[in-house]
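idk why but the lab printer keeps eating my pages so im just putting this in chat instead. protein + zinc ion:
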Amino acid sequence: METPAFLDRDRPDVPDLVVPGGVTPFYLKGRPVRGRMVHLGVLADVLLTRHDHPAAVTRLAGKALALVAALASALKFKGSFSLQIKGDGPVSMLVADCTDTGALRFYARTEEDALNALLAETSTPTDRELLGNGYLALTIDQGPDMERHQGIVEIAGDDLATMASHYFATSEQHACWLFLSCKMTDAGWRAGGLILERIAGEGGTHVVGDADADANWETATILASTLSARELLDDSLSAPELLHRLFHQEDLHVSQPRALAYGCRCSRTRLVDVLQGFSNDDLDHMAQDDGQIVMNCEFCNIDFRFPRKDILSRAEQD
Ligand SMILES: [Zn+2]
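predcted complex ->
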């Protein structure tokens, strides 16, 4: 069957953008430390400015994007890594996800009155003030053949990095050190992160209380904490350069960087498939006075419009 003319366009107005050196994995040889440095580069600006959020919400979203970009780079198979935070604060829902190929997207749902009230008090609320009390979930979805892995913890701490390290400590029993940052710079919005993970020693052993390993982990986190947001978000400083500044005395090994890209998978074709699942009655109700059905992608913040007459309910097609 020929593609109808109204479907013959894919994702209008969505940028096709790839940042080649988005995530740089590294490890410190002979120490129980591996990590990732994340630079969203111009992708931060493109993803974040599609949404009309106040700067405080944009900063939080940028940090969430840097976090999922770092975590998804550890996926061993095809799939995606997704962060969901649901709380009782002015940002009632925050979703960010990243696939194994580095395709990134997010959306944030805000409660306007509560958000305006908070921003009237302070223009720089903490992540916790934005999110309130609630839950943080991380989901690894590696396709239909693999079991979905999801961990949920209560929101703890004042900033997203603390919330995430609390997640790893309680849900995964795994020590992590995180630094996440997102700011408006001269070049536009920039976001990035540095994550250290404590890994088992040689041969997979992790001796609790191993003094050398404890000391090496502590040294790595102390060195990592000297990284400033200004350095991290400066386009002219590459990840290998920054990592060398931090860890040159720790037998640093920098691995092949991985790309990040604009990652919403919405398309007209996919949305038509969703629409065709409804009955003709429902479709009639969805249509506006001008005969159009409008579907919004919350990730891209785009309205897709479909003439009602072109959509046939699947159940009533035969
Ligand atoms: Zn989309």
